[in-house]
Amino acid sequence: MTTTITPLIPGAVPTMPTASAKPVMQLENVSVFYGGYEAVRGTTMPVREHQITAMIGPSGCGKSTVLRSLNRMNDLIPGAKVAGKISFHGEDLYAPDVDPIQVRRRIGMVFQKPNPFPKSIFDNVAYGLKINGIRDNIPGRVEKALRDAALWDEVKDKLKSSGLSLSGGQQQRLCIARAIAVEPEVILMDEPCSALDPIATGKIEDLMHELSRKFTIVIVTHNMQQAARVSHYTAFFTAEVDEQQVRHGRLVEFNDTGRIFTNPSDKRTEDYITGRFG
User: Fold this and answer.
1) Which residues contact 169 (CB under 8 A, 6 or more apart)?
2) Residues 132/101, Cβ–Cβ less than 8 Å
3) Whole-model pTM?
4) What is the distance between the alpha carbons of residues 21 and 233, in angstroms, rounded to a whole number?
5) Which residues contact residue 277 at a Cβ distance below 8 angstroms, ignoring those fewer than 6 apart?
6) What is the tens place of the pLDDT at every residue in 225-257?
7) Contact 35, 5 (CB under 8 A)
8) Which of 44, 36, 43 is nearest to 81 (CA)?
9) Which domains does the chain have, with CATH numbers?
10) Distance CA 152, CA 143 (A)
């Protein structure tokens, strides 16, 4: 007899992970500091190849801070420092001889609000290619990126129009096309649907499933239904207050999404998912 497990969120149908997926990134006891303040501490978790990993948790728990550490975006913040180890294919991303610009080419990022450049649709996608020194077959590469971002059919006849003329959902897909044009291995997405309406959000979620066939994806989201729908693995973060009454983000639990949303091992995870706090 088959037993049906009821998700803690009504209507959530978690995506099944690929059992054989190997880690392409590994975080080992990672803490992130802003000056003397430890914003998030002691994070250990894998990021598995061609899987979607969601980071969830209340505001101020460190999930976006951890996400930005995965491609060294925190380097751009004065006083920011990463302790512990983040490896990418076994290589320490923060080793002295590692070029952060090359890291960001191989590990791309899509931000919370669509941020097209005040350029044409074509030039938005071509921008990353040109600054990375990729000069061959730019029209073909732009078309491929727009097709992969499920945008080509909507813009193929107006490539010279401003990227700012597109709808919010189209702008976000344009930003995704810009990110994937340089063919990264990993795409980081920081609340990519928070500024979008439900229809545009659905298109981005469908797109994430398609992109995970070619890319590894890590997404930060406050929308737990979204995490349950799109991700294979989920990391739940929370904020702890130490004896000096200072808040620090901490990873509470990491597991496949089905387990997190049906049978979490930590009561704090269950309380957050079921709305008892957060």
Assistant:
1) 196, 197, 199, 200, 201, 203, 204
2) no
3) 0.90
4) 11
5) 58, 271
6) 999 999 999 999 999 888 888 889 999 999 999
7) no
8) 36
9) 25-273 (3.40.50.300)
10) 7
Burial degree of 152 (CB within 10 A; 0-12, 13-18, 19+): middle
The residues pairing with 162 across neighbouring beta strands, listed in sequence order, are 120
| Token pair 């693995």 in the structure block, residue | 233
| Cβ burial, residue 75 (10 Å; 0-12/13-18/19+) | middle
* Residues near 244 by beta carbon (within 8 Å), at least 6 away in sequence: none
- pLDDT tens digits, 36-79: 999 999 999 999 999 999 999 998 899 999 999 999 999 999 99
What distance separates the 2 farthest-apart alpha carbons in the chain?
61
Two tokens, residue 155? 């813009």
Separation of alpha carbons 116 and 207, rounded Å: 18
State how far the Cα of 257 lies from the Cα of 54, in Å rounded to an integer. Answer: 8
Residues ≥6 apart with Cβ < 8 Å to 191 = 64, 112, 220, 221, 222
**Closest by alpha carbon to 175, among 102, 112, 101?**
112
